[in-house]
Amino acid sequence: MLMNRLFRTTISVLLMIMIALSLTGGLSTARAEKLDPIEQFVERMYNIVLNRDSEEQGLNHWSEILRSRRMTGAQVAHAFFFCPEFKARGLGDRDFILTLYKTLMERVPAEWEIQHWLHHIWLGWPLDNVFSAFVHSAEFGLRCRDAGITQGTYIPPSGGMARVFATRLYRTALGREPDARGLDSWHNLLRTGSVTGASAAFSFLFSQELRSQNISNTEFIRRIYLTMMGREPDPEGREHFLRLLNANWPREDMFASFVASLEFEGICNELGFVRGTYTAPPGGMVRVFVTNVYNGALNRGPTDTELNEWQASLMRGSEAAVLAYELLFSNDNRSINDDEFVRRLSRAVLGRAATAAEVTNWSGQLRSGATTRYNLFVNFVNSAEFGRLCTDHGVTRGTAPQPINTVYGTGNMHKVWNMIVTADFRGISDRPEHVAGIVGNLMSEAGPSLCPFQIQVSNHAGLGLMQWTGRPGRRTDFENYMWSRGISEEAFYTEVRRHDTWYCNNPAMHPVELHDRVLQVQIDFMFHELRNTWERQYMGFIDFPTDRTGVAGARAYAELFCSLALRPGVGRTDNDAIRDLGVQTALMASPFVGGSGRLDRISYSGLAVRRDRAETAYLYFINNHR
């Protein structure tokens, strides 16, 4: 136990001696005690800076100068640090910094402090300027006060900091050491004001030499920070600019933002040259907007051709809503489910990911038939959030374009046609033959006027556009759907009871708001049925060979839609199961799926009328389409 205590005591004493020696430059404690504080200050200069003991004459000479205040502590320190004897020692940058700390601060620096000053020297700081920072520090001021001398100041030669920036241009922008001739040239141009800081930085950051290095966006961000701010990028700044650059924001736009920053202005003032200005070519944020819409809507960025064409179009005044519509409703998105559509819609139009609650809410509305993808898109485009996004990117918001294949007009044909198109069920809007085939069937059920209050007084009392009947309970489902969508049962049946042929053929006689709401809800229910009944699996067969176009395609589709859609198997019975087999058999024989049979082998009344009215609807489209 006694030996352990003696060992610990011995170690403590040795450590104290080592610390004392490090702060007196190896001067023995006994000798240091014989010197007054001013002489100790001078002795440290000899011991640490020149790495030797002082001679008596030198010690007395410098001590007297300080005591009489003919020179300050900063001036005497400079005389030692930049004398030929010290330069002859040939110390590297690290040892130079260690010597500054031990001499002027009377302590050993932490490693991070050494790295801090090494970084400044790498950025081009002359040793004169590093020395100046030390002798102007509060810590050196305390050492001078303890010694009873004046701290003083040291101003490096003028133009030295312009050389710092010139050196930095080579080391941080180009990643190499400067050649002497080039360094002198840029130093003189900056020092004399012949070039600004902005123009000098641009010449390097956008030089052919740097372009040929083909550096990544991450590396470009690092270099522009080091070059213009003299520091590594902070994590938030790096992520912010990386997100923009990866979205095709031009590097010139990033450079312009740095030039305009207060931080760069302060650095130029500190280094002693003019900041200058830089204006980036127009359209940079438009490129970001186009890229973000592509990534959001299609899960891919635009090709160079797509990017350039849309940038030019938007800069000429084309509407941002048109770009978003064309991508979100392109063929690439036909097969995605409602959840994925909502996610893409939010990213493309709002510029952000939808929350889980938003996905649940919006996709739930789509699945229930409370809205359509097109109508949801319209709501997003009309939102304040999309408006701000467009303003921030310098593009015109505009309005949601009418879907392709919509028609002009004012009557029920026009309304029903456009409602079917905007529902965009399984890509129906891409083929006017499809829409005409559906409209032809509805005209056969509800009459040419397409009255939503049409009622069939016999044969199971069919009701509405598709004459939903009580067999097998479809009318009850239809009514419940209407009431759930806010249609008043009393108001609806008031119009049904007032129905007669003349009234139904003049839909304007119905209350307009109620009429249009009922019309929309019935179209929504039609697609709701198709999405949620057993026959939805067969809807995938609704397609055309290339020769089934125009009037012939509309007539053929009318048959197919009649067979598949007018009698969905809600609440199936045994008889329905027999009919299901008949539908399947007909499909397998259909020319639509490679068979050679005819769809009208299913006995269903009015197929000829349905084909004729589909032709009428198609010709209406030809004469009135947008």
In whole angstroms, how far apart are the ends? 102 Å
Average pLDDT score: 82
- Number of E-type strands: 0
Biggest sheet details: none
Shape: rod-shaped
Please give the share of residues in helix. 55-70%
Strand content: under 5%
Tell me the number of structural domains.
4
Report Rg: 42 Å
Question: Structural class, from helix and strand content?
Answer: mainly alpha
> Which stretches are poorly predicted, pLDDT < 50 over at least 5 residues?
1-26, 534-546, 568-603
Number of helices: 34
Overview of this protein structure:
The protein is mostly helical and 626 residues long. The protein folds into four domains: 2-147, serine acetyltransferase, domain 1 (Orthogonal Bundle), CATH 1.10.3130; 160-271, Orthogonal Bundle (serine acetyltransferase, domain 1), CATH 1.10.3130; 284-393, serine acetyltransferase, domain 1 (Orthogonal Bundle), CATH 1.10.3130.20; 412-624. 63% of the residues lie in helices and 0% in strands. The chain has helices at 2-23, 29-34, 37-49, 56-67, 73-81, 84-87, 93-105, 111-122, 127-135, 138-147, 160-174, 180-191, 197-205, 208-211, 217-229, 235-246, 251-259, 262-271, 284-298, 304-315, 320-328, 338-350, 356-368, 373-381, 384-393, 412-423, 432-446, 474-484, 489-497, 501-504, 512-532, 550-565, 574-589, 607-624. Helix 3 packs antiparallel against helix 7 (93-105).
Short précis:
The chain is mostly helical. It contains 34 helices and no strands. The radius of gyration is 42 Å and the shape is rod-shaped.
